Amino acid sequence: MTDQTLSPAERYAASRDRARQPLLETFREGLRFDLDPFQREACAALERGRSVLVAAPTGAGKTIVAEFAVFLAMREANAKVFYTTPMKALSNQKFQEFVEAYGPESVGLLTGDTNINSHARIVVMTTEVLRNMLYADSDLLTDLAYVVMDEVHYLADRFRGAVWEEVIIHLPSEVRMVSLSATVSNAEEFGDWLQAVRGDTDVVVSEERPVPLEQHILMRSKLIDLFDSSGLAATNRVNPELVQMARYGGRVLSSRQMRDVGRYHSKGGRPDGFRMNRADLVALLGDRNLLPAIFFIFSRNGCDQAVRQVLRAGVRLTEKHERDEIREIVEDRCRTLLDEDLAVLGYWEWLEGLERGVAAHHAGLLPAFKEVVEELFRRKLVKVVFATETLALGINMPARTVVLEKLEKFNGEARVPITPGEYTQLTGRAGRRGIDVEGHSVIQWEDGLDPQSVASLASRRSYPLNSSFRPTYNMAVNLIDQFGRTRTREILESSFAQFQADRAVVDLARKAMQQEQSLAGYEEAMTCHLGDFKEYFSIRRELTDLERKGSRIESASNGERETRQRQLAALRKRMKDHPCHRCTEREQHARWAERWWKLKRDTDRLRAQIQSRTGAVAKVFDRVSEVLLELGYLAKEDGETALTVHGRTLKRIYGERDLLVAECLRRNVWKDLDAPGLAAMACALVFEPRRDEGLANERTLPRGAFRPALERTIELWSRLDDLEQDNRLPGSEPPSTAISLAMWMWSRGQGLDAVLSEADMAAGDFVRWTKQTIDLLDQLSLVAQGNVGRVARQALESIRRGIVAYSSVA
């Protein structure tokens, strides 16, 4: 909206806003488009010095708020901004964008396996990296002004979500936070928690999609609107034509056929469920001008098979000049790949698909291949992508149309319906801002689908954000070392998990911590150079209380009066004999002591309330602490809990198996391993097997020192698991050696073909597990003493080669 289209009053209000927000106005002038109301509101809050939580649909432009935070930081001398993401791919993408905007000297990147310009003023990183920095009190935190937490709804992730809460709780209070979330139904509750633990925080919620979404059902060969578009129906009423077609197998019946409905059903029910094949559907979308499209298929193999299917059918969606450009980009991005690896990676088949405008996108793809697919799709050179749901998370890859072949997926245990939140996330990719007037979603019909259920799924735009926070061993030792066990318990009471369980405890804990800070100030103000004024004041309080008590008791016996008089005389003598009684500033100290005493009484009352309401999070922390005490990672000293030398080692080990790694180092379990053996062992600790994987047959394990070391590692895991069960902790799965031999072969320099064959997995999966193995080996190289540390570094270098070493960022 331009100034010319506004009324005089609106123009005056806009002028006043610009005067109040000069930095926002400067930022806005540098954009090629105007800001939406929610973007302006969030940016204005940042300029006022507040933190913000922005909840808006996928593609709505939330990152503009983050870019304004970067803009503000770059205008302050030495101020830094950290941009955190849940995924390395998203980190790489944001890194490239900021490099283009601010130059390579101003931007850094920190992920588990990449360290570029870490002292820059703008640093993009995965959230785990920032958590580790906070626990290590890294000097990189100096001058930190803003932290952007992109995809903050990842906090609900049951495996990694706790990291987001750790960062939010432990960031220095002066750092302003920009939290970007998908539309969640309890954004206000999450905002209230942020307000409780971080202070001034504005919640900005937008439920409007930037590009409207038209939703269709593909029944047989016909695209039918999901919702009634007659204009006469209430909003979100299911299209009556769809209901009729669903009832009669995808056909609209004539009046005569409707009269024969009874006979129709009596002769065997529903007709066969015709389903359009993918090549014909691609052609249909092309004819309707609905490309580019993303087909979401909840299976990697399904994605690869879909590409092969449409290629066999002769689908070609590109012109010659596009094919030339595609080949040029592919050759440039993949130039570092070894020629002998290309066939193993399926390079030529992949390239043929790209040149015809078709590709797959899933976690099994080599990262280099995924990045190329994303780039070609953004450049409108690839027109159809068959993808798993991971594409919907964060990566900037919008399409005109999203196709859902099924509304259920395998969750690792069973086939389950997708949730309204997942549906919103997937269809959020439909509609490109500034390109499309509207986005489209297409659901392929299959027998058994209920139009009303589909409509319910599609009309619920948001889902609740629930905490997955739980204390870990590493978290416990880091917090106890920094704050002590009692204060750590209070900090954990401030978690979103506890907030959701009992909102009152968070407010009480925050108030108690604030009052304890005031108590420390009062205590300092009443300090006397002649002696312990707290002790002196307690005598005065006791004397005052006894005098008041005596004045209220009139019917006391002579004996009672004499006893009280002796007590009063003794107290008066103790008070006069105390060195602080002679202090010239005694009454000034006493006024501060009176304030301290009253606040201490109130704080103790708060503490008692918190103790009585202690939640599940603190109880889990107590159990974790008991395990650590029993194993000697914590010890009691003068009534306080402190870290032992082993606890200091555990402080620096991050990951699901932190305690098992620490135990193995402590007991020298891995001292005889060579580099390939240690790589195989680290792989066994990080690898998460599918249901049909786990411990490999002994004949397929690396020979030599690896086998006895593995036996001792499994034995230690078993003892830890028993101890955890005894302390009512959930325990863990045993280490899995399913791909340890493949990692051992890779470390020894064997070829990719043989290694992938042994691992029986896709190249992208092998790269992902190798990078996680590298992350653990890197930690071991820094933490382990003597030979194990040196071998860990050798092992790391031996597996960081070939397709694993490839990085488009580097």
Automatic annotation (TrEMBL):
Keywords: ATP-binding, Helicase, Hydrolase, Nucleotide-binding. InterPro entries: DEAD/DEAH_box_helicase_dom, Helicase_ATP-bd, Helicase_C-like, MTR4-like_stalk, P-loop_NTPase, RNA-DNA_Helicase, Ski2/MTR4_C. It comes from Leifsonia virtsii. SMART domains: DEXDc (SM00487), DSHCT (SM01142), HELICc (SM00490). Residues 43-202 form the Helicase ATP-binding domain. Gene3D superfamilies: 1.10.3380.30, P-loop containing nucleotide triphosphate hydrolases (3.40.50.300). The keyword Cell cycle does not apply. It comes from the Bacteria. Residues 309-481 form the Helicase C-terminal domain. This is DEAD/DEAH box helicase. GO terms for molecular function: helicase activity.
